[in-house]
Amino acid sequence: MIRAVVFDFGGVMTAATMPMRVKAVADAMGLDWGIFVEGFRKYRLDYDRGDKTLKEMYDAIFGDAGLAVAERERIEAADTASWLYRNEKTLEWMKALKARGFKIGILTNMAPAFAPLFRSHFADFIALADALVISGEEHLTKPDPAIYELLRARIGLPAEELCFIDDLEVNCEAARQCGWRAIRFLGNAQVVAEFEKALLE
After folding, report:
1. DSSP structural state of residue 69
2. How confident is the model at residue 71, as a pLDDT?
3. pTM, to two decimals
4. Fewest CB atoms within 10 A around its CB: which of 2, 80, 149, 176?
5. How far apart, in whole angstroms, are the C-alpha atoms of residue 12 and residue 166?
């Protein structure tokens, strides 16, 4: 029996899955977007874990590429702004689940520097949560099993009663390895349909 639904933040509670405002700035500055994609793959979890600041993450990305980039503040500001696109359909679904008696969890990879913006801009999402884990505040990141166990302990339910919603399959698979159910988020209609089907299994 599923008794709680645990939500990722970026790409689930937001309408964008990557810092797409960064791409617009990078394109305008003539920078190869592939540099950023590779850099995020290597260093984004360090930032989300709190091991690097945003500036240090971009220092590493540009250092690897051998670039001296001017107007860095534009890129860093665009990165932060990219995560402020709210997915209102997810909020409405969270409210509906809560009204049906499901517990709500939030489990997100998020840098500690961004957490205050999350708490202010997404306060209505957070108000629905029975348990919240932010990676940068715990120095853990998905897909580490320890961060899933931390959320499970905070929500107070066994793993088999949790259903995780995340836009990345690697994070969904990690949840399954911890005994949770998991559904990869590809869109609101899709995830709701798959969740309702899972309730019948």
Report:
1. -
2. 82
3. 0.93
4. 176
5. 7
User: Where are the extended beta strands (E) located within the chain?
Assistant: 4-7, 103-108, 131-134, 162-166, 181-184
**How far apart are alpha carbons 193 and 195 in whole angstroms?**
5
Q: Residues of CATH 3.40.50.1000 domain(s) within the chain? A: 4-15+85-200
Cα 25 to Cα 20: distance, rounded to the nearest angstrom? 9
Paired tokens of 189: 């209609």
Distance CA 151, CA 186 (A): 23
The b-or-e profile of 49-64 (16+ CB within 10 A means b, else e) is bbebebeebbebbbee
> Which residue did the predictor score with more confidence, 151 or 24?
151
> What's the token pair of residue 17?
């899955």
Using alpha carbons, select from 81, 84, 78 the residue that is nearest to residue 27: 78
Nearest-angstrom CA–CA distance, 59 and 8:
27
In the predicted structure, residue 189 carries a pLDDT above the cut 90: yes
Tokens representing 64 are 């690897």
DSSP states along 147-193: HHHHHHHHHT--GGGEEEEES-HHHHHHHHHTT-EEEE-S-HHHHHH
Q: What is the pLDDT of residues 126-150, one digit of tens each?
A: 999 999 999 999 999 999 999 999 9
**Residue 63 near residue 70, CB atoms below 8 Å:** no
Mean pLDDT of 110-137: 97
What topology does CATH give the domain 4-15+85-200? Rossmann fold (3.40.50)
Residue 20, pLDDT score: 80
